[in-house]
User: Fold this.
Amino acid sequence: SQELEQSPQSLIVQEGKNLTINCTSSKTLYGLYWYKQKYGEGLIFLMMLQKGGEEKSHEKITAKLDEKKQQSSLHITASQPSHAGIYLCGADNSDKLIFGTGTRLQVFP
Amino acid sequence: SAVISQKPSRDICQRGTSLTIQCQVDSQVTMMFWYRQQPGQSLTLIATANQGSEATYESGFVIDKFPISRPNLTFSTLTVSNMSPEDSSIYLCSVEGWGQGKINYGYTFGSGTRLTVV
Assistant:
């Protein structure tokens, strides 16, 4: 079965700093999703990547899928307290979504 | 993308009892998914529910413990049976978010049910 490993597990950064979260798959990724979860709430869809080398940006968040389609990164530029939460990568696996281990982000002023 | 209404949003239950969680979608969808998120953990898929057929359960989850109904294309329920404190988790339903023109909005999730078993 496919497994997704995220790193780091948790991250504490000062407001204004850049940060990167990685998601590594044990198998080729045919659809990679990034979600954000505010503590105790539902999931917010951020971006989806499908093609090797693909990169998408929304506001200050950029996600990339490597050429081999086994690793994705999520980069946040000039972090703000509103970016705090749990970031989850998810992979399409036989018409269902499986999730990575998660990264907890805290941003302090 | 689809809008999901999930209820209850939270509940505190006695061990040995059962709780049924409802998930209503504002559009017809083929597959609905149920996830569990244990405290401090990521999401784990419990089962996939198709209308008109039995749900497909993931390894580690059984129908007797988590019976699922899918009576039509916009509604599903998940029951957590004979609960124990280990069942304390957030339970979420999800649908695939295809919009008009096959634009993929990603999988859409309900707001979750926070279950505490005492």
Chain A has no helices and eleven strands. Chain A touches chain B at residues 1, 33, 35, 40-43, 45, 48, 88, 90, 95-102 (CB under 8 Å).
